[in-house]
Amino acid sequence: MRLILRWLINALALIAATKFIAGFEVESFYAAVIAALILGLLNAIVRPILVLLTLPVTILTLGLFTFVINAGLVWFMSTFVKGVSVDGFLPALMVAIFLWAVSTITSWFLKQD
Fold this sequence. Notes:
Blueprint: H1 2-20, E1 24-26, H2 29-53, H3 55-60, H4 65-80, E2 84-86, H5 89-111
Antiparallel strand pairs: 1-2
């Protein structure tokens, strides 16, 4: 149940990000749901490998390089999810930071139960 709730919250966060971040567009709720699913899969499968490969840079930047990795995953996701577009790296980075903030707040509220 929590997994589905997180998935829907992330989809809503992607739609909300379109209101705040210029250069990021999601055409429909369906596209946001698919994008949230793909991002979740990328974060579960690809992100740990990328973090391991870039560990020296991540340590050197005190973990801030993970935002760059997340931005790359957002940008990568937008290349094959129809209905989601990112106009460049900076909007992808801003979406990654926005999704991180939403995920942090969501985790905090779900731990309260």
